[in-house]
Design a protein that fits this description.
This protein has 311 residues and is of the alpha/beta class. The protein has 12 helices and 11 strands.
């Protein structure tokens, strides 16, 4: 009986949340944002969105997606990766803090209420420009525009220029863009989209900024760290970013050591491509001592990562 009552309360809270947002604001209060991201204990923006450090963002660019996936999987986060994107600057890596946006098909009375509240909040211009005004350096505009292509592009070259100027990054859109040739020519505008179309957005409305959104099979929260490479995007919870970065850095260094030893003929491929013996681990530790600066963290931290590894 108690469980049934609890389920009813949760359902009512979920159903009432959009009404609360429409009657108050498009985004969450600071307290609601902290409640949505309780595992993050570090710095936050004024609105409560997690603020992973610039240093970790810079280091994340070297992390292979495979290593990020492995860490998240081991921590119980099994739905953080989405494939089959069009990377409009192929070969480049996108890293940044998610500023999330939700779009839906127009429903007139809902859009009218959103416009009224936005006017009270001092928002200007078309809905699609509101998130851009909120971007800061290192952000990535992440939008669910429900895969709409025709009459679905929510930005073109003008808004793309504004996004790049504000954030230094491109976008991740579960939908379309226009002016693709111009966007491709913008250095730094590394973006992952579902497609492009010469039309512009119509019969769409923005229903939330910095709220939980769905991108394919992934639930994305404000402040998640985007790691996009080739045709895949990883959405990393902020409280796991440091572990992902350090694990990725360690794996890269171990791969370098393993490949050196393979070229030397000291070990067989089977020895290097499986869990290392104590003798190989000792050899690696000596190699690290002889090559200071290979790792941007201490040997004690390295040993802690090795102790808990699942790879």
């Amino acid at each position: 009986m108690k469980n049934n009552l609890l389920n009813i309360y949760i359902l009512l809270a979920v159903l009432l949340l959009p009404t609360h947002l429409f009657s108050q604001n498009l985004t969450l209060s600071r307290e609601e944002m902290i409640g949505l991201t309780p595992k993050w204990k570090g710095e936050r923006f004024a609105d409560g969105r997690p603020k992973v450090s610039d240093d970790l963002l810079k280091r994340m660019k070297r992390v292979p997606v495979e290593q990020a996936w492995g860490v998240l999987r081991a921590e119980g986060y099994t739905h953080q990766y989405e494939k089959n994107w069009k990377n409009i600057r192929a070969g480049e890596v996108l890293v940044g803090r998610a500023l999330t946006v939700q779009y839906m098909p127009v429903r007139p009375e809902v859009k009218e209420q959103i416009q009224k509240e936005a006017t009270k909040d001092g928002r200007v211009g078309d809905m699609v420009s509101w998130p851009i005004d909120m971007l800061t350096k290192g952000d990535v505009y992440v939008a669910d525009s429900y895969g709409k292509l025709e009459d679905g592009p929510i930005i073109g070259s003008n808004l793309g220029t504004a996004i790049l100027a504000k954030s230094g990054n491109g976008v991740v859109f579960n939908g379309a863009v226009r002016d693709l040739r111009d966007l491709e020519a913008m250095p730094g505008f590394t973006s992952f989209v579902r497609g492009d179309h010469p039309s512009y957005q119509q019969e769409m409305m923005l229903t939330g900024i910095n709220v939980a959104i769905r991108i394919g099979n992934v639930t994305v929260l404000p402040g998640d760290i985007i790691l996009g490479h080739l045709d895949g995007v990883m959405f990393i919870p902020p409280h796991l970013v440091e572990r992902v970065v350090k694990t990725g850095e360690l794996v890269l260094v171990r791969d370098e050591f393993g490949q050196i030893r393979l070229r030397e003929g000291k070990y067989t491929p089977g020895q290097i491509d499986s869990r290392w013996t104590d003798a190989i681990e000792a050899d690696f530790a000596q190699w690290i001592n002889a090559n200071p600066g290979k790792l941007p963290f201490s040997k004690a931290e390295m040993q802690e990562l090795l102790k808990d590894r699942t790879w």
